Amino acid sequence: MATNNPGDLDHTFGTEGLAHITQPGKSFFQVHGVTLTKAGKLLTPGSYTDDTGKHIYYSLGRRTHLGHPDNFGEGDSVSGRFTEDASLSSMGQKAFELENSRILLSGRFIDGTTSVLAAFARFDINGNPDHSFGENGRYVARSPLIPEYGSAHDPYTDACIQSHQYLLSINPYVTHHNVTTVMVRSTHDGRRDATFNNNQEYVDTRQYADEQIRLSSIATQHDDKIVTCGYTEDRVGIRRGIILRYEKDGLADSAFTFRREGWKPEHIIVVNERILCCGSTGSGEALLFELDTEGNLQGEPSITPINLSNRWTKMAWQDNKLVLIGERKSAFGSQLVVARFNNDRTLDRSFGTGGYASIDYGASESAPIDVTYDTQKGIVILASAKANIGDSQYYLARLFS
Question: 0.90 cut: is pTM over it?
Fold first, then answer.
C-alpha cells in the first residue's frame, strides 16, 4: 500500500509516480534539466539529433503539475538551434522562469570549430520565440577571444541570472592543449556586456599558467557577487577542487580562496550568506560542504560512505532542508541515490529510510540528472534509466517532502 511519508513516491504524479518523457520520431532524444515554475509547471530542456545524424537541436518541453504533457509550442515542446550558422550541436540544459511568464533556455552550443560555448533562447508563455531577445530570440555568448579549434574533455557550460537580468555563463576555452574556463556576462536582451571585467568583456578564470581549470557550476550571492566551482589539474595530473569568487562586475575577489586536493565539486548554490557545494572526494565518496563569506570551510564536510553514494551531482534547498541526488556504483552498474539533509548538513532521518530514498525504474541502471524542490509541490527528480538492451529513457519522479 502506498504511503505519503517524506521520501515516498507520489503515485498521483505521472503513472504511479513516474512520468516518462519522450519525443516520438526524434533520434537520440535526451533530457538535461528540470525547472518548477510558480504555476507548478515543469520545464524540461533537452536535445535530439536530426535525420542526418550530423546536427543536434535543442528542445524544451513542458509538463503539468501532475507530470502530463502540457500545451506548449508544437504539442508539448519547442525545438531549434541557437544560430542558423553551420553548427554541430545546440543542446538545452537549463530553464529559467522570467517576469511576465517568459522562459529563458540556456544550453551548450558547439560551432564548426568544435568550440564549446554557452547559448540562450527566450520564449513567451506559449513557447513562441521572443524576437526582442538576441537575434530572432536566440543568442550565443561568445567572448572576444579568437576561436580555437578543439573542445575540452568534460566540456561543461552553465549559466545563472544576476540582478537587473544580466546573464552569466561559463564555458571551456582550449588553446594549444591548455584548458581554461571563460566567464561572459550578457545583457537581458541578448547582447555581450562590453563593460564586464573592467571593459575586457570576459574573465579568464585560470589561476596559474601551468594548470588547467574546468568549472562546472555558477551562482550569485545576494549582493550579486559571483561564485563558481570545479577543479584544476596541474602538469603531473594532481587535481584540486576549487571555488572562485568574483565581484559583481567580474573583477577577481582576492580575499576569497578555496582549494582542496582530491575534491571535485560539481554543483554550487548560495543560501543567504552560505555557500554550499556538493561533489565527490578523491577516494570516491559523496561530498557536501559549506564555506563562509571568506572562503573558509565551515565545520566538517559531510562525507557519505561509498556503499551509499559515490558522488552528489545536484542539490536543491527549501525551508532549511537540502535534497541531493547522486549515484552509487557497483559491479552491476550505477543507481540513482536521493538524500535529504538538515540545515546543519546532518542527514534528515525522517526522509526515506534513514535519510535516503531510492526509485525503482525497472531498469538495470539509473543516473541522476537534476532535482527541484518545493515543500508544497514535492521533490521532482529527473533521471535516466537504461535496461541491458536499448537506449536510455528519461523520467520525472515526484517524492513527498
Answer: yes
